[in-house]
Design the sequence.
């Protein structure tokens, strides 16, 4: 008897449901942020999103100067059939309209032609000074008085 091969398509995981108890724990999520931010740095609640079953991330507006568009986040969870809420993670994440640093570019790619020429000139001067110094030392060693 031969068995038929199982389909190799990956199983689809259902979208996690927003746990109503965890979604309502805004004050616990906000209070936990006191570990990493002052109260006046945490703004209004932006929303809550289900990351997984019984795992919800709350986002709050960041009021730090220079962090426009950023959000504080607090992830809360609970065990199955439990009412006790646990804070899992805290942090600061960029939003869609956040000011971000540009991607890193190696120095060799961002240096201008003028700066490259200046660097080469400085290197040539330094090499020339080292050669002159070495030649002077060799001349001094070769010109030592002859002993008769």
Sequence:
């Amino acid at each position: 008897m031969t068995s038929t091969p199982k389909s190799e398509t990956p199983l689809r995981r259902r979208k996690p449901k927003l746990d109503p108890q965890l979604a309502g724990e805004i004050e616990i999520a906000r209070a936990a942020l006191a570990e990493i931010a002052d109260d006046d740095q945490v703004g209004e609640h932006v929303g809550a999103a289900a990351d997984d079953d019984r795992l919800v991330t709350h986002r709050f507006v960041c009021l730090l100067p220079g962090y426009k568009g950023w959000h504080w986040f607090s992830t809360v969870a609970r065990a199955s059939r439990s009412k006790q809420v646990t804070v899992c993670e805290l942090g600061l994440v960029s939003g869609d309209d956040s000011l971000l640093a540009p991607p890193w570019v190696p120095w060799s790619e961002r240096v201008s032609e003028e700066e490259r020429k200046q660097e080469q000139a400085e290197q040539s001067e330094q090499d020339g000074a080292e050669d002159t110094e070495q030649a002077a030392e060799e001349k001094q060693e070769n010109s030592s008085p002859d002993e008769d």
Remarks:
- The mean pLDDT is 87.
- Strands lie at 42-52, 55-62, 70-77, 86-94.
